[in-house]
From TrEMBL:
InterPro entries, alphabetized: Amidohydro-rel, Metal-dep_hydrolase_composite, Metal_Hydrolase, MTA/SAH_deaminase
Pfam families membership: Amidohydro_1 (PF01979)
Protein name: SsnA protein
Keywords annotated in UniProt: Hydrolase
GO MF term set: hydrolase activity, acting on carbon-nitrogen (but not peptide) bonds
Keyword Hydrolase annotated: yes
Domain Amidohydrolase-related positions: 52-393
Amino acid sequence: MGTVLKGGYVVELEPASVERVDLRIEGERIVARGEDLTPGPDDEVVALSGKLVFPGLVNAHQRLVSVLSRGLVRPTPETYQALLEQVRWPFENALDLDAVQVGATAGGLEAIQCGTTTLFDLHASPKAVTGSLLRVARGLHEVGVRGVLSYAVTDRMGAVGREEGLEETVSFARKARGRFRGQVGAGPVFTLGDDALQGLGEALNTTNTGLHFPLAEDPLDERLSTERHGNPPVTRLLNGNLLSPRAMAAHAGHLEWADLAQVLATGTWLVHTPRSNQGLEVGYAPALKFGARASLGTDGTSPDLFAEAQAAFLRSREAGQPIDVLRYLANGHRLASQVFEAAIGPMREGALADLLVMDYLSPTPLTAETLAWHVVHGLGSRHVEAVMVDGVWRVWARRPLSVNPSVVAEQSREAAAAVWARLTT
């Protein structure tokens, strides 16, 4: 028994194409593509009547549990260091395992409703480390989204905290199956001593994965890394053999060209987070210089990849360095395909069936040549009508099928209130 999507316009991002064809899905994969496919006797037929069939989006850098900090009354720090010390780190310290799971469910629900089917989460809860990634996975499992999870190892809580983080990220990477994979995660490089870098290297060898970490989000990363550890971040990462085609560096807004060139030479993925950078007032990252392996992430902002793509394109135009927004989105699929060792993104035979049905009534011709302009100026999460992950419908008629949004929201409010109360004490 399969599912046949009939009469829709199937979108591919790179090379761009918009074609009115049918798709047949069986199990977790697309098994046929063609004009006017004949359904089998037991197939479910979904008449799309000209709606778009769009690849499910990939969020390459997200902090899921930050959804619990939305609206939190907090000081207005004058520097990035003050932001970390007065806002971000105290919030992470106030998380417990129950809040982690509830936040993952709430953040994952928002993500899938916005059209994200795969997300890469870099998690930190320094006073609730052991079992935290399993809790994130449970939260995402309720929603049905695909996840690549890592714990942000740091020396910020001392040697014991560092070892707990290493054990957590390695343990989850070994156990992850199905819609989940693990990576080795790290905090900002200036929070990592030499022992931490060595531990990360050993964890990468043990798990055969890549490193997911923030890099040069602010000039503070280079200044403190040099002051505390004798070398700037890129030099230390290269000396530790931590950069590779499996590594992912988020932000990268404050690297000298020589350092950026060295990062690019290792094949490391760079994840652009323009809305987060704007919100934190840390400046614009030169995304046009990020090379062929650059993608998009939302960090701690709302998990809306369509909004992120639009912000990325418009900010790049403002800077006089316009990026190819379709390539950035397609690279998310390449990254996910690399991690899951299966085709994710192509709307072709053999690919995993992660896709969106979008009710977008285009006011102008929608073709391969105009697709990027529709993504930037027209398409949005409001058009996401249905979401399929691994061949299973997870959102239908704009309603999640496996969770009750009202219940998730109520649980999230209760968890947020508890976290905020711990912050005040």
